[in-house]
Each structure stands twice: as C-alpha cells, then as structure tokens.
Amino acid sequence: QVQLVESGGGLVQAGGSLRLSCAASGRTFSNYAMAWFRQAPGKERDYVAAISGPGGITRYTDSAKGRFTISRDNAKNTMYLQMNNLKPEDTAVYYCAAGDRSALGSSPRWDSWGQGTQVTVSS
After folding, report:
1. Alpha-carbon distance 16 to 52, whole Å?
2. What is the per-residue pLDDT across 66-108, written as a single tens digit (0 to 9) for each?
3. Region of 15 on the Ramachandran plot (φ > 0 left; ψ -120 to 50 alpha; else beta)
4. Which of 70, 74, 114, 123 is least surrounded by Cβ atoms within 10 Å, i.e. has the fewest?
5. 110: three-class secondary structure by DSSP
C-alpha cells in the first residue's frame, strides 16, 4: 500500500490555473504508475491523466488534453497536475492514485488512493 496526500485545490475563476500535488510514501515511488481522477457532485469518479513510473509516458482523457499536464518528481516522491484554462465543468474533487505496476501499457490496477482535494471553478 502507498499513502497519498493531495494538495493544491481551491477556488479559481474560469480561465485560471491551479497546480495539484500528490505526495507519496510507503513504496519506492518510481516503481509504480500514478494517475489523477476526479469526481463531480452526483457523478462517477473519472480518469483524468496518468504517468508511468519513470515519468516518460503520459496519457490524458480528451477533456484534459491541451489544458492539463501531469508530471512527477521521483526524487521528491511527488506527482503534479498543472491545470490551465480551467472551466466550470472541471469543478470536482480530484484524487491521486497509485498503480500496482510501473508501465501504463499493461493497464495498472489503481490500488491506493488519496483523500482528494476540491477544485472549484467559477464562471
């Protein structure tokens, strides 16, 4: 199991930016893929972006492409989500998750989760 703590959420106007962080502990950080998910009120938790263990491979959902950037600093055991040009529909609780393997191509199982951080985008 990995312990994950998100931070960086808040209230921002449409068109603004936020950077979320996810600090990890409990396993060798570079050994597992990481991902961001989000859950809006009344909706299911949705995948946003993922990054491989070494950090060289990233994937995004269509709504995140071109606006969000996922990255990680394995020396700091921390993953980030830079969110630009935010829209009201991005309002949600954002969760980070750790996978059970390093490579994204082998469809990691997301088996550790943080507590979430609220992002609210006003119009």
Report:
1. 27
2. 999 999 999 999 999 999 999 999 999 999 999 999 999 888 9
3. left
4. 123
5. strand
Report yes or no: 13 and 103 within 8 Å, Cβ to Cβ. no
Q: Binning pLDDT at 50, 70 and 90, where does residue 16 land?
A: very high
Q: Encoding tokens for residue 51?
A: 């990054």
What does the block give as tokens for 44? Answer: 């299911």
CA–CA gap between residue 44 and residue 30 (Å, rounded)? 29
Q: Which is nearest to 64 in space by CA: 51, 82, 76?
A: 82
Is the four-CA dihedral 114, 36, 71, 89 of positive or negative sign?
negative
Average pLDDT over every residue of 33-52: 97
Distances (CA, A) of 78 to 15, 34, 41, 121: 26, 10, 27, 24
The angle at the Cα of 101, spanning 97 to 105, to the nearest 5 degrees, equals 95
